[in-house]
Write a structure and sequence with these properties.
Oligomer: single chain
Strand content: 15-25%
CATH architecture: 3-Layer(aba) Sandwich
Largest sheet: 9 strands, mixed
CATH superfamily: Vaccinia Virus protein VP39
CATH topology: Rossmann fold
CATH class: Alpha Beta
Distance between the termini: 14 Å
Helix content: 25-40%
Number of domains: 1
Structural class: alpha/beta
Number of strands: 9
Radius of gyration: 17 Å
Shape: globular
Order of helices and strands: HHHEHEHEEHEHHEEEE
């Protein structure tokens, strides 16, 4: 895993793009509105995965009590805060200092002791986390293999990793890039379709790092249901990963 500590994965232009959105990150009707709609869907998957992997009581309020969680590409903390409320000792990492500042401010206002750090996950020497999450991030990094290797290094033996990312399909180009940006649902320049990664490509990257990918679950959209978990992975998918 030496490459994980030597290869940089941050794209400065990507960090700058998302850093400009930091002040508006927690506004459910602002530039990150789509993430606010997506977060409950992801949290439902994450909670089920936690309960299954750690044999937790599905009725318990703090299934991550006594466990350490790392969210990579945390933005302003939209996932870190729910993980903290589930009982985890949470570390959030992001490439944009503006995001980390906004995350710290919001966590302080919420009374949540989250450890936020700015930088490249492969350069921070992190390890021993029971849960590692990275939501809609791998499509933005400079070196996907180095990024996966850094995530693997951070994961404790017996730990659980959860990743989500857009799929590279004609449907995702039409709806997530051309449609969503044209309609103002996401800020222009957020998505670069050529950087999207298919489930098979992600499987091979994880396998090369000694990790095993579970069956991907799609995150789909419909007029009647909005965003929801689905067997249809054409737009976006979320997966569990283990060593």
């Amino acid at each position: 895993m030496s490459n994980a500590t030597s290869a940089h994965t941050i794209r400065p232009d990507e960090a700058a793009h998302f850093g400009k959105l930091a002040a508006d990150w927690w506004n459910p009707k602002g530039s990150s509105a789509m993430l606010h709609k997506l977060n409950p869907v992801r949290l439902g998957f994450i909670r089920d995965a936690i309960d299954s992997h750690f044999a937790a009581d599905s009725r318990g309020l703090k299934p991550l009590a006594g466990r350490r969680a790392l969210d990579v590409g945390c933005g302003a903390g939209l996932l870190c805060e729910p993980l903290a409320r589930l009982g985890a000792q949470v570390t959030g990492v992001d490439a944009a200092p503006e995001n980390i500042s906004a995350a710290r401010l919001h966590a302080a206002g919420s009374g949540l002791p989250i450890d936020y750090r700015c930088g490249d996950v492969g350069q921070l020497g992190l390890g021993g986390y029971d849960l590692v999450t990275s939501m809609e991030v791998i499509e933005h990094v400079a070196d996907k293999a180095a990024f996966v290797a850094a995530l693997e290094t951070a994961l404790a033996d017996g730990g659980l990793m959860i990743l989500s990312t857009p799929n590279r399909t004609p449907q995702s180009r039409l709806l997530l890039v051309e449609g969503a940006e044209t309609l103002g649902m996401v800020p222009k320049g957020t998505h670069h379709w050529d950087d999207f990664i298919t489930p098979l490509e992600l499987h091979d990257l994880l396998d090369a790092a000694g990790l095993t990918m579970g069956n991907p679950m799609g995150i789909a959209w419909s007029i009647s249901r909005g965003l929801h978990l689905s067997d249809n992975t054409a737009l976006n998918y979320i997966v569990t990963v283990t060593r």
